[in-house]
UniProtKB/TrEMBL annotation:
One GO term describing the cellular component: cytoplasm
Pfam families according to UniProt: DHO_dh
GO molecular function: dihydroorotate dehydrogenase activity
Keyword Acetylation: no
Keyword Nucleotide-binding: no
Name of the featured protein: Dihydroorotate dehydrogenase catalytic domain-containing protein
The entry's keywords: Flavoprotein, FMN, Oxidoreductase
Pathway the protein takes part in: Pyrimidine metabolism; UMP biosynthesis via de novo pathway
Cofactor(s) required, per the database record: FMN
Annotated organism of origin: marine metagenome
Residues covered by the Dihydroorotate dehydrogenase catalytic domain: 2-225
GO biological process, one term: 'de novo' pyrimidine nucleobase biosynthetic process
């Protein structure tokens, strides 16, 4: 049990596989302990231009640059309402990918609007605050005060399920401590999920002449130790 939510087992489907909640029942039939759908934004988005997925077989890695394509929170919430599930359902929320940087105040309004349609259906909400391939600029939520502003707005949402915050993994303990201090007053925060930082700044077997032209975020074996250290 986590945050008062009973899980039959700890193996679940993370966000990114079922982006629009189209195969929740099929995933539930696999015996998973939970399913998290998304990432979902307040408004529909086609994501980043193709190609947006690159394989690095020599490194056992993938470079992901999808840019969270999704149908928008209203459309997905309508589909989810018609699909009861026997296991916990998580909703991963993110800002709409406009292709450029967005003002922090606008992002707060978006994430607040995206959460409201799911309040009665989600067992938990995951706020993806540092998705590495949604905007052209640096996420405002690398700054603890911006996180505090967002959570202050979320405090006013009625019937909110437990909320998990998805941050970029950092090896710097001071940055982690500063973020925890910003979150501490918000008692509805149930825990944390760690995302990968953007870029390919890791020792790779793949020649740089190949990898340097790939936009996105590296996933796989080269980043395993970073995530292990963050958690």
């Amino acid at each position: 049990e986590v945050a008062g939510i009973p899980f039959a087992n700890p193996v679940g489907m993370a966000a990114g596989f079922d982006k629009n909640g189209r195969i929740i029942e099929a995933l539930a039939a696999m015996g998973l302990g939970f399913v998290e759908i998304g990432s979902i934004s307040a408004h529909p988005s086609e994501g980043n231009p193709r190609p947006r997925l690159f394989r690095l077989p020599r490194d056992e890695a993938i470079v992901v640059n999808y840019g969270v394509p999704n149908e928008g929170s209203d459309a997905v919430a309508h589909r989810v309402d018609a699909c009861p599930t026997p296991m916990p359902l998580g909703i991963n929320l993110v800002e709409t990918n406009t292709g450029g940087a967005t003002e922090p105040e606008h992002v707060i309004a978006e994430l607040t609007a995206a959460a409201k349609p799911f309040r009665a259906r989600a067992d938990y909400i995951a706020l993806n605050l540092n998705c590495p391939n949604t905007t052209g600029g640096e996420s405002p939520y690398l700054q603890p005060r911006r996180v505090a502003e967002l959570l202050s707005e979320y405090q006013g949402i009625n019937a909110l399920p437990p909320v998990f915050l998805k941050f970029t993994a950092h090896a710097d303990p001071h940055r982690i401590d500063a973020m925890l201090e910003a979150v501490e007053p918000s008692t509805f925060i149930a825990g944390f999920i760690f995302n990968l930082p953007p870029g390919l700044h890791y020792p790779l077997r793949t020649p740089s002449s190949v990898s340097d032209s790939m936009p996105g975020t590296l996933c796989g074996r080269p980043v395993r130790s970073l995530i292990d250290d963050a958690t």
